[in-house]
Amino acid sequence: RTTIQKLFIEEMGTEETVFALQDYPATCERYFEALAVLEDRFIDALIASPIVSISFGDNIHASLTSPELFRKYILPAYHRRIPRLKAAGKFLHSHWDGNVKPLLPLIRETGLDGIEAITPLPQGDVTLEEAKEALGDMFLLDGIPAVYFDTTFSERELLDCARKCIDLFAPHLILGISDEMSFNGDIERVRRVGELVDACNAAR
Questions:
Q1: What is this structure's pTM?
Q2: At residue 177, what are phi and psi to the nearest 5 degrees?
Q3: DSSP β-ladder status, 139-141 and 173-174
Q4: For the chain: N or C, fewer Cβ within 10 A?
Q5: Distances (CA, A) of 35 to 53, 136, 180, 181
């Protein structure tokens, strides 16, 4: 995870991280510098590996990581690591599974190849059209709100959403569930999406 996301999710939690950034900014910066040194070693290993696709497990949520925090802490870290990995031929994406509408204008500044798990309405806070406008020719990974896989919504709504994802984003699309299907999801609906994808591929 990237800088403050690591603090938020793994190390300190939301409240303590916010206080630390305000009360001990120099200490936080030293931590991020040390983290970057450690990350360089990890990147060296990734570059030497046969791994092609790399996900930054950032779990971005704009209610937590505001555009201001994103510009200050996330973008510089991306700009530091991404050129090395791209030069080695890696496909790079980051996991943005929360509300992300305020961050959409910053997506193309990341240097990533794609964004994973952007969650559209009615579960998230963006439309598929807004996501497409923000991503341009970047890849969308996933794209179907998880709530469409349970009986709250009709199968028709699920398939219409899946079809819209394909129409808007293909061929820059790895279709999947944003973010995870719940315990009461219907596996038959997953199969129905698979059948739709097969039909779309056969028609190309």
A1: 0.93
A2: -100, 130
A3: parallel
A4: C
A5: 22, 31, 29, 33
